[in-house]
Amino acid sequence: MADPFDSDLFPDRPDTPDFWRLSEVGLHHDGAALEEEDGLNRIINSIIDQPSLLYAIEHRLGNAGVITPATPIALKAKLMALYVDAFCLGADFIRRGGHRD
């Protein structure tokens, strides 16, 4: 069995505390999504109230010209979901110690 920490599958993967902390957060969020019916909502709500986050995201994406009133709803939902994921990963990364030299 290949060593998952030293694998050709991930040739450029960093081996830094930041990477492993971010990986830990991502795996935690993925696990919550798979194991708990409302796992991701629980994580999001422990960081920020969802209406505020969704409102801010929609306006940031609109102000950047990424979404418009003509943007298909499925694409808008995907873009907003990515933004929510990135926001929550970053917030949890900071809660777990953030970047340290």
General description of the model:
The protein has four helices and no strands. The protein is mostly helical and 101 residues long. It has a domain at 38-101. It is globular and about 45 Å long. The model has no long low-confidence stretch (mean pLDDT 90).
Characteristics of this structure?
101 residues, mainly alpha, 4 helices, globular
Q: How much helicity do the residues have?
A: 55-70%
| Low-pLDDT residue spans | none
Strand content: under 5%
Order of helices and strands: HHHH
General shape: globular
Mean model confidence by pLDDT: 90
- The span between the termini is 33 Å
Kindly provide the radius of gyration, computed on alpha-carbon positions and rounded to a whole number of angstroms.
Answer: 16 Å
Give the class from helix and strand content and strand pairing: mainly alpha
Q: How many β-strands, per DSSP?
A: 0
Outline the biggest β-sheet: none
- The total of helices stands at 4
Task: Tell me the layout of helices and strands.
Blueprint (H helix, E strand, L loop, with lengths): L16 H19 L3 H9 L2 H14 L9 H23 L6
Helix pairs in contact: 1-4, 3-4
How would you sum up this structure in a few lines?
The protein is built from 4 helices and no strands. The protein is an all-alpha fold and 101 residues long.
